[in-house]
Design goal:
single chain; 455 residues; alpha/beta; seven-stranded mixed beta sheet; four-stranded antiparallel beta sheet; 38% helix; 16% strand
Amino acid sequence: MGQLQRWIYPAGLLCSVILNVVFVVLYVQMNSKWKPDWSKSAAKEAEAVAAVTCSGHGRAYSDGLVVDGSPVCECNTCFEGPDCSQFSPHCAADVESGDPLFLEPFWMQHAASSAVVVMGWHRMSYSYSDRSTISQELDKLIRKLHALVGNANVTGRFIVFGAGSTQLLNAAVHALSPHNSSEPAKVVATIPYYPAYKSQTEFFDSVHFHFEGDASMYMNSSTSNTTSTFIEFVTSPNNPDGKLSKAVLRGPNVKAIYDRAYYWPHFTPIPAPADDDLMLFTISKLTGHAGSRFGWALVKEKDVFEAMTTYMSRNTEGVSRDSQLRALKLLKVVMEGSGREIFEFSSKMMKDRWDQLNKTLSVSKHFSLQEITPQRCTFFQQVRTPSPAYAWLKCERKEDKDCPAVIREAGIIGRNGTLYGSNSSYVRLSLIKTQDDFDIMLNHLNKLVTKEKQT
């Protein structure tokens, strides 16, 4: 009996060990075949919203209004009704804003590859595991994208992320301004310039910098001998006229911020990689996702990079991790097929719109458009004709001094040239909104030109 007892305990222990091993093996096998059920409800909800067609003249959104359990359509301008099928023929074409909705059809064609499912526990920390606020994968992908497109030199450049390029504008001005001088930096830009340069600089009302207007006013002064710091904004391609611009000021105390938001193959030929000390980019005009608020700066000087990084840290603790995740997903789609698909799609659309607009206004003596010289594009390896984001329309008659009012009477809402430092004989018309917006604008312009020929 005693001998039997001596064997019972070792045998029990051995059985216990064997059972634990079996359970561990079964657990590993079950988990290797585990299917993630948690994402099904989110995918089902997104698919249900995407299935709402809104007659092709609007969109339903996951975060939009819901009535009786169903998502409600948000209609394009001049369309209304529960499914956006009712057109208002006397409605004005609103082409005032730069909403880049022209790329919406491309992303609808790439719904699967561009979709993002975000876990409830995704990136809850203030920082990534390396204690930074920048996704290193996204940093690497941006560098690869610029190398692929050939529109910017990234060698030896630091990258700063921002909430669109808008946040980076003031971060750059802050970084370039002298903080140990009694005289503030003079912030300038050549007319016509993007209105945010003036409005944002004046809004922050810093003792370190002031907006001083047109850069050309200082071209004849000796900027090389003055102790004043000049910060020149250069938009290239320019907003509003689409021209490839360069800084006009020179001197040891002159610093330039190159806004390259539109320096992509769908808006302009790419003659060579941009190699400026400080360049700003944004997915708003690259992919059309203005609402995601993601942009980046390529910075050559380390001290400027560090100053901009400090600004971002104090301002917002960096860019939303969710925005960075979406940008990463979108840019992966952009780079598919060496980037040919999205740029061929978008450049064709922009060129078609520009050609139609030119054809309509070519017979007019009352209105004219900016002239843009064709150039060879290194990305497409051919000479490219214009495909700008905006029409810089001019009313040629002396009596039409208020051009925005003239075209508004014809049913078109544009942006007044005075906002760009120019005068009201100019008006900017956006060519990057929905197809509905463009078609309605073109229809009103055709009527306006036809009326002109009849008088």
